[in-house]
Each structure stands twice: as structure tokens, then as C-alpha cells.
Amino acid sequence: MCSQSRYLLWLAALIITALPIFGTIIELPQDYDCTSPWSELTKLGVENLTETDCLRTCAVGQLPRVCLYTFVLEFYAAMGTACRNCSDGVLEDCYLPQCIPADGVQRGMMSVNRQLPGPPINVCKNDLIVVNVKNQMAGTGASIHWHGLPMTRDPWMDGVPYVTQCPIGESSFRYVFPAEEVGTYFWHSHSGLHRANGHYGSLVIREPCVDEPYSNDIYDFDLPEHTIVLSDWMHETAEMFFPGLPSRVPGIVPDAILINGFGWYLNGTASEDSVNSSFPLATFHVSRNSSYRFRIINSANHVCGFLIQIQNHNLTLIAADGITIVPVVVDAFVSYPGERYDFVINTNNTSLDEDAYWIFVNGLGVCANLGLYQNAVLSYGTNSTDLGIIPNRTRPTLSDPLNFTKVLNYPNTTCGESSDYLCITDLRSIGNDRDARHSSVWTAEPDARLVIPFGFHIFDVNDFHLQGTYQKYENLQDTIIRAAMTSNITFTFPSSPITFKEKPDNTFCNTNNLPARCLNISNTTVGSYCQCTNVVILQENDIIELTLVDTTGDALENHPFHLHGYSFYVTHMGRNYTEEDANSLNQTSCDPPLKDTISVPSKGFVTIRFRADNPGRWLFHCHFEWHLSTGMAMVFWVEGDMLPPPPGFPRCGDFSSLT
To answer: What does UniProt give as the signal peptide span (predicted)?
Structure first.
């Protein structure tokens, strides 16, 4: 399947284009204690190191390595002093060390190692990932979540403050976990609005190409520099808009889209685009007559999807959320915050040996109304030292976009009616139908069925600001005040991590156990309102069927929900959910796709299934940052034995001299 010549081509390209600086290599012994990896680190001599070398071609028979990274968290500035004359059109200055150009607008931000995105992690399967986080943000707690990784051996390392750990104060914390699952993932802060301020980066776990589940050589190159990280960007810190400014227009929305931290500030609502063409764009280099695997990560925060296209190129989708799928050829696909897609492009159908094409990322929903889009460049026959490459072809804009005929995940598509407008449920995972334990998840009668509506509670401004009341909320504009909910509960984090508890207690709540304070409040909606720590108990190894139902009533928002600790099968998706639908969702005999983040159609529903075989305390939440911050979340407490925490694991909680 995977020839030696392909391996040599991959290695040659990596050496020529990536130009890595080889550092310390530490290999893991075959008999190291994988149930307590932190105890092995001192023996391996990593105490005084800040990084080790793991960027390599993954090969059969090689020993796994210790992959050590140091993340320094800081308050920093985009277009700050490191950028010198970048804003004046000196392109080389935009690439100076520690320069974060973003879209050319100066703003305060949060950085990791003074990079945007933060440092990439590229490792091989079974490597041991070690990340030393040093928080230098005075007065601000932080944490890092490893999005999409199940943390089967290390639930303590999932990185959610007050669920799996205490926030990291102005101190350090060491994350240690094995790279057990191959695929495209990413890391991001799970504290406050830090991700929107710049705390995010890629995490890719590869395996030897002979172990990949494809039936033929579907691509020639899988290069680290072909990882694309999408994000939205505000020209002020995100905290300016939390809980909100009533007279601020346009309010809680992004100002730009960034691709690998680069972008032009494009004002799509003006009569003409305001483009500084001397400013850098993200550029991806390829050669003729080859095929390349690209990995795209959506790290955005706001209520927008992104439509992704490459001029004159088809995209062969081969993985979703890190899990391989039966290849599907499209010319566009839509990604929502938290999702990842891998695709292959071929470079043997173009007319010129050396050329460049536009990459087009178009904002949907609210971002479409704002006129937000972004461009990057796919360049032929060039390398990373060539700067300022601009295609000769017409640049796609909102008024002159790229056409498409076959698209995946387009908002509110009626599933099953068109072979050109594909839903996630049209994808097929590879290999799981041959595993009875996997296939039983979508064919057997579930042990537990949960219907989880999500939406908002609208407060009456005349009753909201009463003395002594402090409900969690956001203010969109004027007097619109609301809190987010799942199962009619606004989630609040406890004072100490849930994972510290040996068993659930009366500090938690759920729909069957609401505290006395959850009483009706005078408001513009019908029903009760409750803020509490919503924890749902799941029995170990049960098959769980969960149906998410959008009750927000907003036609422009497709909410992406992410489940920590698991991937799940997406079995059904549709619009206008009714209780009758719950009785008509029969088991499926096909091989449905596995994902860990799923976008729910506006005013619609999604049904997912998973086996609760990973004991721990796992957050389940909307991946729009402001919705999580105002309570659109819950925790699944999966029963079963967890491995103990590392020695000296930090503790925190309430303090009262009277207790």
C-alpha cells in the first residue's frame, strides 16, 4: 500500500520545506509504566528540558518518544513591537520572531509562546505527550484542553477547570498523556474567553502509512505545514463583550476571519473591499503531479460556520474529527467551531507548471450578514521562503464567490434528498461495521435514551437587576438579556473540580433533582429557570442514545456540540423535531460516522450514540464560546474505576473559617 519511494519523498519534502531543528530525542522504553507515565519522566531525564524532537516520519518498528513542549501563556499584542515595519508594507518584518500580524490591526491578546496559532504539536501514535504550561498572565487562571482526545488513561488531564482540574494560576502545570488515537485534533484554552483571545493550536497524531485503513495510496504527502487552523478575530479583547454592551453595534461578533493567524481585514459590507495587498496571507506550497493531505481545524468562537473551497480544485474528504471515512469528493464543505476535516487535493490537472490559486473561506450565518470572508493562497512550485505570493486569477469575494455543485454540511440541508448537498449522516466510517462491539452501538436497543433541549432563557429587564440577584447572562443589544440552557438548566461550574468527588452529592443537580432555589422568575418566557451544576449519571458500558433539540428559534445559528472523552455515532439529523420523532428513530444498519463535535441544524435535532466505556467526568457543551460561558453545558458522570491522579495533583475549593 505505502511504498518505500513514497516514504523517501515524504522525508525529503519534510527536510527541504519544513527545515526542522533537531533537538533532544528521548525514546520510551518498551516496558514503561503507561498507567502512571508521570512517574517515568524523571528516570528518562526530562526535568531540565523545555522541548524534545518528535517531528519525524512515523515508521513501523520505531520506539515511541517523549514529546516535550513548553507553553508560556502571556498577555501580548498583535501588531506589537516585534512586528517593526510590517504595517508599512515591509513584508519580511511580518515574519520576524514573535511578530503576530493577524489582520494588521493592533490589539491586546493572549498568546502561547508569542505565536498565533500557538505551537503546533506533531507526534506519532503511542508517543508520550508532555506539555509544561507556565502561566505568566497575572491574576488570570488558565487551562488547556486537548480537543477530541478521549483521555482514556488520563481523565485528570482533560483540561477543564472545575471539572477535571483547578485552573492554573500564576504558576505551572504539567500535562502528560499518551498519543493513543491517530488523527487531527487541536488544543485550546478552556478558561473564560481565552480561546477567542488567542489560546489555540493544532495537535496531529500520525501513524505509519502502511497502517492507515485506506485501500490504496490515496495521497503522496502528509506534511505538517499543510495543517490549516481557522479562527475568527475581534479587534478588542473578548471580555469587552461579556456580558455585553447594550448600545454597542454590532455587538458580540467577529471583525475578521484568520487562516493560520494571517488575513486581510476585509470589509465585505462596504462598497469596495479595503485590502492591504502588501500584508501577508497564509500560503501553502505544493508541486505538480502529486497528491497532498490537508488537515483543517475550526477553532472559531462565534455563531458562524465557514464554507471552505480551493479555486479549481476538488476536495476528497477522508476524515472527520480525526476518524477516517469512506472518501467523498466535494468542491466545498462547511465546518463549525470544534470540527476538523482532512481532505486530499491532486495537483495533476492544472494547466501551468508554476501557478497559484485562491483558498476561499466564506463566513455563514451571522458572519454572512457581516460580510466576513478570508483568502489564503495555494502556490505551485514555490517554497516557504517565497513571500507575498498573489495568484493572477480573480480573487473570490462575497460579490464574486467560487461556485460549487457538491457540498458537505451546508446549513439546514434536508438530509437524504440530494446527492449534491450532503449531511454528516451521509458519511460512512471505515471498519467499524466489522467490529461487533462497535456495530452494536447503533443497532442494539440503547440502555438509556436522553432528549436534551437547548436554548435560552430571556429575562425581563425590569425584574433582572434586583438587589441581591446575580444570574449568569449575556446582553446582546438594548435590553435583551438572556442565559443559555441545556435541559432547561443554566450550567454553573462548582467551586472545586467535579472529578475530586468520589460520588455525586447534593451540590449537583439535573432534571430529576432540582434545588429548591430553582423557582419561577418573572420573565418573558414560560417555565422555570435554574442555575446549577448539571451532572447526569451514566452507567459504565451502557449504550447511550442522546437527541439534541434546538429550541432557540434562531434560523441563523447551527450550534456545534462537543463531547469530551468520547467519539459518538451520528445516526439521525433533521429539522422541526417533535416528540413523535423520538419514537420513529429506528436503529440504523449502516456504518454511521464517528465524530466528537456535531452541528445541530437550526430549529432541528441530531441523534447520537456512544457506549459509556470511559469512566470519568466529561463536559458536554456548545462550542460557541459565549454560549458555553453563559451556561449551555452539562457534565456526564460515567461510572467506573478511574486511575488515581498524579501525586501532588493540585486541589482547590471554597474556604470558610467557620467550616
So the answer is: 1-23
User: In one letter, which amino acid is 4?
Assistant: Q
Alpha-carbon span 596 to 152, nearest angstrom = 14
Show the cell assigned to 481.
438579556
Q: How far apart are CA 514 and CA 533, in angstroms?
A: 10
Write out pLDDT tens, residues 259-318.
999 999 876 555 445 556 678 899 999 999 999 999 999 999 999 999 999 999 999 999
List pLDDT tens digits, range 80-99: 999 999 988 899 999 999 99
Whole-prediction pTM: 0.93
With respect to residue 178, please indicate whether it lies within any of the assigned structural domains.
yes
**What torsion do the CA atoms of 411, 603, 511, 442 make, to the nearest 10 degrees?**
-50
Q: What is the pLDDT of residues 436-486, one digit of tens each?
A: 677 888 888 999 999 999 999 999 888 888 888 888 899 988 888 999 999
| For residue 539, pLDDT beyond 50 | yes
Which residues lie below 8 Å from residue 437, measured CB to CB, with a gap of 6+? 611
User: Could you read off the pLDDT of 473-526 as tens digits, one per residue?
Assistant: 999 888 889 999 999 999 999 999 999 998 888 889 998 888 877 755 444 443
Alpha carbon dihedral 227, 144, 238, 373, in 10-degree steps, equals: 10
- Considering the domain boundaries, does residue 646 fall inside one? no
Structurally, the chain folds into a number of domains equal to 2
Of 228-237, 429-438, 454-463, least confident by mean pLDDT is 429-438
Residues 123 and 10 both lie in one domain: yes
How many Cβ atoms from other residues are within 10 Å of residue 523's Cβ? 18
- One domain, residues 16 and 71: yes
Q: Which amino acid belongs to residue 162?
A: Y
Q: How many CB atoms lie within 10 A of CB 655?
A: 7
| CATH code of the domain in which 523 resides | 2.60.40.420
Helix H or strand E encompassing 114:
none
Which of these, 631, 252, 336, lies nearest to 456 by C-alpha position?
Answer: 631
Q: Which three cell numbers stand for residue 430?
A: 471505515
**Residue found under cell 500564576:** 170
Which helix (H) or strand (E) covers residue 629, if one does?
helix 625-629
Q: What angle do CA 491, 493, 499 make, to 5 degrees?
A: 115
**Number of other residues whose CB lies within 10 A of the CB of residue 81:** 8
Range of the domain at 66: 4-410
What's residue 212's pLDDT? 87
Bond from prior residue into 280 cis (ω within 30 degrees of 0)? no
d(CA 302, CA 363): 11
d(CA 234, CA 301): 10
